[in-house]
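Hi team,

As requested, here is the filled-out complex form for the 1,3-dihydroxyacetonephosphate run. I kept the field names the same as last time so the parser does not choke. Let me know if anything looks off before we queue the next batch.

— J.
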Amino acid sequence: MIVTTKKLFEHAYGKYAIGAYNINNLEQIVGLFRGNLDSQAPFIIQISKGARSYTDKAFLEGLIRAADDVFPEAIFAVHLDHGDEATCYDCIDSGFYSSVMIDASSEPFEENIAITKRVVEAAHAKGIVVEAELGMLGGVEEHVKVDEANAKLTDPDQAKEFVERTGVDSLAVAIGTSHGAFKFTGSQSLHFDVLAEIQKRLPGFPLVMHGSSSVPQEEVDRINAAGGQIAGAKGVDATQFRPAAKLGVTKINIDTDGRLVWTRVHREFFNEFPAKFDLRDPGKVFMGEYAKFIAAKNEYLGSAGQLQQVREFLKA
Ligand code: G3H
Ligand code: 13P
Ligand code: ZN
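And here is what came back:
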């Protein structure tokens, strides 16, 4: 069942975070649904602009609708990840997405507000909810001076003003994470002090953490042992998810870790079975491994085991 993120956030706020997983193909979608049902978790499917144009956006939509039929117990939102204004309108008009992200975070503050406001108006007119972003993700390098580094993080006062002026439903905040496999070069970690200040100014308002893959060392080691060359990768400690959820983070975005599962499975498979060429053989292994990965992640997020309660909450 497709629901809005708004409803999921209402149930999760302050207690746990919902996993927002990027998908690109059939095997990921099947593994995603299986993993979330195995762990009895509500979830968010995220579709990036890149995912929409990988083949034709209609394929992903068709696959997700089919998964909704095949796994009728699943409760999930369909969300556009990092949309520009035109892509947001395309998704709003499609009638398929229950949530869109407008990412105008690279624009100056006033322009970000103006763009976000336009998207919020168009989305709300159709019952669709909107996530926006304020601050700059991209890693806070160790060599950057504290003042410069903090300038990239979300300013708590601006966050309050941004939410009030745009009417947005949730806000992605920059608290030290970045996208991809190379998030930290040394001892940096998340800026919970900034998160706490944002929550103080926006009590009860759902916050979003992008760039939250953990890049498990064991996964990287297995990929490299099977011929990969991913050196120095480092991610977010998953034990930080629960403390973040207590401070108002209700959505945690994970893409890179899923890509690592795919890479490990396929590298190891073809190393072990060099004579095989039926694409379904590694595909089956991947779907199982991806499901396990999702279920394990949901334990860290605290979303595991919440499905029945969410179902009852939606009925009430
Ligand atoms: O935040 C970006 C996501 O990881 C999606 O990546 O644009 O390569 O699909 P993508
Ligand atoms: P990762 O690269 O850490 O998986 O982040 C994904 C993300 O933020 C998608 O919007
Ligand atoms: Zn992101």
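Two things worth flagging: Strands lie at 18-22, 43-48, 76-83, 99-102, 129-134, 170-173, 207-209, 249-254. The first helix runs from residue 5 to 12.

Thanks,
J.
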